[in-house]
Amino acid sequence: MAQKSDKMTSNFDVSANLLRKLADTMGNAGLSEIEYVDGDRSLRLSRAAQVAAPAMVPAAPLVPAAATAAPAPAAPAATPAVEPVSDVKTIDSPMVGTVYLAPEPGAADFISVGDEIKEGDTLMIIEAMKVMNHLPSPSSGVVRRVLISDGQPVEFGQPLIELA
Amino acid sequence: MAQKSDKMTSNFDVSANLLRKLADTMGNAGLSEIEYVDGDRSLRLSRAAQVAAPAMVPAAPLVPAAATAAPAPAAPAATPAVEPVSDVKTIDSPMVGTVYLAPEPGAADFISVGDEIKEGDTLMIIEAMKVMNHLPSPSSGVVRRVLISDGQPVEFGQPLIELA
Amino acid sequence: MVKINKMVIANRGEIALRLIRAAREMGIATVAVHSTADADSMHARLADEAVCIGPPPSKDSYLDKRAIMTVAELTGADAIHPGVGFLSENQEFAEMVEAHDLIFVGPTPRHIGLMGDKIAAKKAAIDAGLPVVPGSEGAISDIDEARQLAQEIGYPVLIKAASGGGGRGMKVARSDEELDSALSTASREAKAAFGDPVVYIEKYLDNPRHIEVQILADAHGNVIHLGERDCSVQRRHQKVVEEAPSPALTPALRADIGRRTAEAVKFLGYRSVGTVEYLFQDGEFYFIEMNTRLQVEHPVTEMITGLDLVELQIRVASGEVLDIKQEDVVFEGHSFELRINAEDPFNFMPSPGLVTAYHPPGGMGVRVDSHLFADYRMPPHYDSLAGKIIVHARDRRSAIQRCLRALAETHIDGIKTNLELHDFILRHEEFQGGDITIHWLEQALEVRATG
Amino acid sequence: MVKINKMVIANRGEIALRLIRAAREMGIATVAVHSTADADSMHARLADEAVCIGPPPSKDSYLDKRAIMTVAELTGADAIHPGVGFLSENQEFAEMVEAHDLIFVGPTPRHIGLMGDKIAAKKAAIDAGLPVVPGSEGAISDIDEARQLAQEIGYPVLIKAASGGGGRGMKVARSDEELDSALSTASREAKAAFGDPVVYIEKYLDNPRHIEVQILADAHGNVIHLGERDCSVQRRHQKVVEEAPSPALTPALRADIGRRTAEAVKFLGYRSVGTVEYLFQDGEFYFIEMNTRLQVEHPVTEMITGLDLVELQIRVASGEVLDIKQEDVVFEGHSFELRINAEDPFNFMPSPGLVTAYHPPGGMGVRVDSHLFADYRMPPHYDSLAGKIIVHARDRRSAIQRCLRALAETHIDGIKTNLELHDFILRHEEFQGGDITIHWLEQALEVRATG
């Protein structure tokens, strides 16, 4: 958890990189405190209990994997701004519906991980109210991850695919 | 936020850069505390939880000047602890009642500002339920301020006199 | 009768919470739909399931019929409750729900359509024997016709949009001279707001109260009324404080208008809860419109009758036979509802944003329906209703005292609210006297501003 | 009749809030007294005036009669309400208040004294015609007398402190062998807890319910009862959940015990609200004691009768003639009160400290009486009662559903609370069936712990 990767400089200073890494780790792992010791030197970061926000029974997300549903109840600035890897692009669902990865049952999927995709290529079908909506790729790139599976219901804004 | 204490040696300095980095990290990551130690030197930044107490209608204090009644509703660690002047002692009321500064109407007050007082000297009378309670001084000193006036109602713990 | 097992809550805010609470108490699972702006909202948190259906603008989320139908299908829901506003009076949506063999918790699409068209509604009211405001039988198209009618019924007259609501597309003309511009302005506004320029003309009542009768009807022809609500405290046609019973009605007047309204609604073959709105002046009622849905102010009726209107609405929607007879309905005490809006109390500027502290009032006779919580960010995309404080006490005077007591306990920080406006209203001698009209609040505010 | 203008609230916590709310609604100004530990508390904040009367320990603040009398004098109050606990059943304090020509919002000092002595109270109950538990006529001093009596009434027997309350100084003996040690332990505990070693012996009922009758009496001999409360859900003699009406009583039994209790209280010449507590087993009532004050659980009676008990208590204390007749009292629906304690839900360790988040439940039929707020620090010096969730619905089943719904909405952070215990109770088949005794909760918890 407290990785020793960056060497501190000999001055009384901390590398911005180390700070960000620790802070990111805290955010991602939902930690309230991190202490980093290196010989004489130590660094401790802590965050107060997540305040308020009646968490109640958090609604079960439609799709457990969904990132947008059931957000962390309070999360007041919980996650320190994670610098996104600049060349990865997530394609989110433009509607509520059921995704189909292949044009018809038994056929090959529109796309697979590693495929090179051109803008406008069909990525999948999203069915809503018996209407089959082809989802065209908004940009070109290589399929890095497929975040949903065939026949899965998705909600608006749910990440479907990562293009790199 | 991080004030330099008197005890710091002259060469224990902090780079503005480091300070800003730590403070920024706190802000971005929503931390409440960061402690950084390097050998003999350490630096701790902390921030009080920002919470909001329902302020409601604060009850009117019995005596407007009273320090204990109607505390500031939220005041989240807003004011850094003020170092009280060490040789001033406040004498608080040991009961609810009405203070009388003189032994009887028309007589001279027990004490006045500037008087030298010995432990056990009567400072005033506090009347409660028709009983006249002589208030003896808990220590010796010079009367610096008289915080109440004759005939005034006081509550428990209300400051009455400052001795220097 | 069909057992409802899971219901989609096609709404947001405090009313979505109201529906979720009723459903949960009935053992019905709930599915919240929400926009991305409401991902953190209370209705999304409290429902058994929550599905994001679109971006913040209502037209792309809460008004997206297809998205909501899809959610019902995907989650296996067997009913959809449209709440208040949004799709609650949308005939097409109700038809869509029924076409998918789901229960629409509301009236038949036909009745929604009928009452959604103000001209048709007025005709239906006349047919059903309800008193209406004198005016045009139907649409008014040219100025000559308008002038003749206005002279017949006497100035002032009101020009209203046929598809209107919420005060938009309404203009008063006090003379022949004003009529022309009022007509064209109203028509233009109507087209802009509702996509339909059709207007009609009515006698303008100068000092009416707004009194509405709550109706409850099952699908088997049983109709009862649950008394009236007085919603005369308005600002720009927006209700601010509602009460039940009305201080202006005698028991005889109450029983009479209740009976007549229930009979009319039975005549129309209506099912579900519904509200017939009247203007009331000089002892006479004049039909304005019928709302074919739950009303925001329904709780004051619940407080004086002890009946759970949402539960009953769901039960009659599932086909249950109403087991409450008119004589079972007893009115007890007096109730007020204070609408808490996120806005400046006196200049009415909306004030969305982060709620940093939220402490609702408690104690005897105080009910709070609100979706606020500490750390909730009220989005700027929707209306400013932040909740409702509903009070019940044995009589009007005690209820006013209780409202004031509750207001003093209420604490909302971070956003501006109209708590202070309510304090102003409740302490006002004229309000306390009870003899007010729908123009009273605006007049009282003017006096306050200039005084 | 005297008009009360200003009243000292000689209490703290949620009950102090309850009194302040009632007073405010009646137009009576309030003076809160508080210890230094409660300077920030809700009762000190909400009262019109607040006076610090001493340090945290109750004996130096809330039990300091002289300090409280001084506050009344200094603030010009004309009445003192003692609330629940603290000085509410202190004869000397009531005498002191009356000696200063102030109104004591409670019964006469004589009745406080009478009912405070358990042996005298039992005699008075017998004289007044109430059924009592078979047992000693008075104090038991030696083991031979005890043994003879125990054999007469039959084991098991209960040894109780004459000055007791709250379960302290109580021991059960199931045989001659156990009697000796039970007697001496109870006596020792009684001396330690109440400064009075006197004990008496009663038949021990194995499977009773706790049912208490609420009484309301004016100073002019008018006495009515407001039905019963069932407080059988207890742990270590502490009530956890209370309800009204009791699921164990028929309307005939209810009317009968109510009438008998009201007649007895009238016979005693009692004034104010009061509660006569009974054990109920095999269709028979057995008088335990009379509480000469408001009870923590009074709201469930308020919910089913619509009457404001605190208001009525204040009105009869000021000499008003009771204008409610027995036939005016109508019971509607069913009510539960859930006591929310700051403690571990299952090991019951107290958990005072900083409340970091507080979100009470809302909606129809839900009342919250609580002094909590976000950022409130619950002091460790007083009892763990953090508030009460009170629910009303048309029947017991619906009320249980509503309780569960309300519990799920409640959110308290920073301190532990017993919300989970309530969830356990409310979902328990035996509780839902309603056929439980005062031992049920402890047995159910044991099954839970071992199961």
Structure description:
By secondary structure, chain A is mostly beta strands. Chain A has three domains: 2-46, no CATH class; 52-87, no CATH class; 89-163, RNA polymerase II/Efflux pump adaptor protein, barrel-sandwich hybrid domain (OB fold (Dihydrolipoamide Acetyltransferase, E2P)). Helix content of chain A is 9%, strand content 30%. Chain A has one helix spanning 16-29, and strands spanning 33-38, 41-46, 60-61, 89-92, 97-100, 116-117, 122-128, 131-136, 141-146, 153-154, 159-163. In chain A, the strands form three sheets. In chain A, strands 4-11-9-6 form a four-stranded antiparallel β-sheet, with no helix packed on it. In chain A, strands 8-7-5-10 form a four-stranded antiparallel β-sheet, with no helix packed on it. Chain A is elongated, with a radius of gyration of 21 Å. Mean pLDDT of chain A is 70; it is low at 1-11 and 49-84. By secondary structure, chain C is of the alpha+beta class. In chain C, the strands form five sheets. Chain C has an eight-stranded antiparallel β-sheet with strand order 13-12-9-10-11-14-19-17, sandwiched between helices. In chain C, strands 3-2-1-4-5 form a five-stranded parallel β-sheet, with helices on both faces. The chains are: A mainly beta (164), C alpha+beta (451). Chains in contact: A-B, A-C, A-D, B-C, B-D, C-D. The interface between C and D is large, with 40 and 40 residues. Strand 2 (41-46) of chain A pairs antiparallel with strand 1 (33-38) of chain B.
